[in-house]
Amino acid sequence: MMIRTENKGDIESVHQLLLRAFGGQQEIILMERLRKDPEIDPELSIVAEDDGIVVGHIMFSPATLDDGGTMHKVAALGPLAVLPEYQKRGVGRQLIAEGKKRCGAHGYPLVFLFGHKDYYPRFGFVQARAHGFEIRQFTVPDEVFMVAELQRGALESMQGEFRFHSSFEGLG
Ligand SMILES: CC(C)(COP(=O)(O)OP(=O)(O)OC[C@H]1O[C@@H](n2cnc3c(N)ncnc32)[C@H](O)[C@@H]1OP(=O)(O)O)[C@@H](O)C(=O)NCCC(=O)NCCS
């Protein structure tokens, strides 16, 4: 298994993977929008390759945290997908670990996501609202809005309103 940066030759495989993992077009549309934005860091679109097959993909996009005085740059995780026949073998775990490492190295203090409440806590994610973060962009239950720190102390020292990249809006 190789974990590496997505390249142009992977795009079609990543789209097929998203279709198979999620069963719809929303995540493909999201990836197409994100890739068009020059602000997106290509190193934060990461694939897992096994025997020449793209079996997993994870994306981290730039997002904001507004604490009322300062707009901080934070990261957002998503989408994350693993081919059904490769699930529950640690592929998602490796993609999250590599992505968190890269986001930390790029200076992001925190990474936010919407996700499965039983999955992400395994990887250091905690409920965001319980730590003083809010979101107005979308309406979501407390348990799916999660955050993990990438720089020690960031969960304690930061707070405010989180916003995903505008590519996440209007996806239905
Ligand atoms: C969610 C998903 C990315 C997990 O990927 P994966 O490669 O199967 O995950 P891993 O094998 O790394 O799982 C790590 C651990 O989490 C567990 N796990 C996997 N999926 C889980 C889930 N949905 N809920 C709770 N635990 C889960 C695994 O059993 C494993 O446990 P273990 O360490 O005790 O063995 C994958 O199932 C997927 O692509 N699902 C469809 C798309 C999707 O829902 N994406 C996430 C959107 S938030």
From TrEMBL:
The keyword Lipoprotein does not apply. Residues 1-151 form the N-acetyltransferase domain. One of its GO terms (molecular function) is acyltransferase activity. Pfam families: Acetyltransf_9. The keyword Acyltransferase applies. Keywords: Acyltransferase, Transferase. It is an enzyme of class 2 (transferase). Its EC number is 2.3.1.-. Coiled coil: none annotated. PANTHER family: L-AMINO ACID N-ACETYLTRANSFERASE, UPF0039 PROTEIN SLL0451. This is Acetyltransferase. It comes from Paenibacillus lactis. The lineage of its organism: Bacteria, Bacillati, Bacillota, Bacilli, Bacillales.
